[in-house]
Amino acid sequence: MSAHRQRRRQFLRSTAGAVSTLSLTRLVSAERSNKDVSWLAEVQKPPAKSKHAPLPDLLFDGKGGAIQSVDDWEGQRQTIEKHWRRFLKTIDVPDKAPKLKVIMEDHPTGLVRQLVRYECEPGITVGGYLLKPQGSIRRGSLPGVVVLHSTVNHTIRQPAGVEGKPEKAFGLKLARAGMVTFCPKCFLWVGGGHYNQRVEQFHKRHPGSKGMAKMLHDAQ
């Protein structure tokens, strides 16, 4: 290989790396429109004592019988779902697929990573990261996974592999394993102020519903 070709390849590699770094920086800046919240330590601290009874073993029915077959589990699953729906009081809003608005896009090796916004409730938008293998449209159907972020200030940037510990970048890792992953932001981080304000606004729209019902709705 000539010295000219070697220099040209080195230049292209270095340029691609610079562009990738620039794209990642722009993704972080675009998503981090609000300052880190001041109440993070408050919500990371577990209560001293729970007022709720410990959850029972999922593989035993209400009479203490062991779940030993798929048919048994189907009945148990319906019972668990019924209890959770009654406890959470699911949100009553139109069930429709939201339209995604792409804010920014970059291309980690072999992937397309998009910062998007979508309407989770009428008139209310939330952000998320959509990750998929490059050329996935041509491959047909792929498994899809919703990846929720931890209770951290960098929220959706964590599972998308933009910021935080690499071992927590589950959305990025699963996309590299051939899946389409979606990482939505928890509603407590949407907007300024204390998280109690987000909860209060939610309760005005959906009296009696738990915050977890809102998180699950936005993820679905």
Explained architecture:
- The structure is a single chain.
- Helices cover 38% and strands 16% of the residues.
- The protein is built from seven helices and five strands.
- Strands 1-2-3-5-4 form a five-stranded mixed beta sheet.
- The model has no long low-confidence stretch (mean pLDDT 83).
- With 220 residues, the protein is an alpha+beta fold.
Strand content: 15-25%
pLDDT < 50 stretches: none
Rg, Å, rounded: 22 Å
Tally of contiguous helical segments: 7
Number of strands: 5
Largest sheet: 5 strands, mixed
The span between the termini is 53 Å
Structure classification: alpha+beta
Mean pLDDT value:
83
Please give the order of strands in the largest beta sheet.
1-2-3-5-4
H/E element string? HHHEEEHEHEHH
Classify the helix fraction into a percent range: 25-40%
Mass-distribution shape = globular
Main traits of this protein?
220 residues; alpha+beta; five-stranded mixed beta sheet; 5 strands; 38% helix; globular
Q: What would you say about this model in short?
A:
Helices cover 38% and strands 16% of the residues. The chain has 220 residues and is α+β, with helices and mostly antiparallel strands.
Tell me the layout of helices and strands:
Blueprint: H1 3-31, H2 40-44, H3 70-88, E1 101-106, E2 111-121, E3 124-133, H4 136-139, E4 144-146, H5 170-176, E5 180-184, H6 195-205, H7 211-219
Parallel strand pairs: 4-5
Antiparallel strand pairs: 1-2, 2-3, 3-5
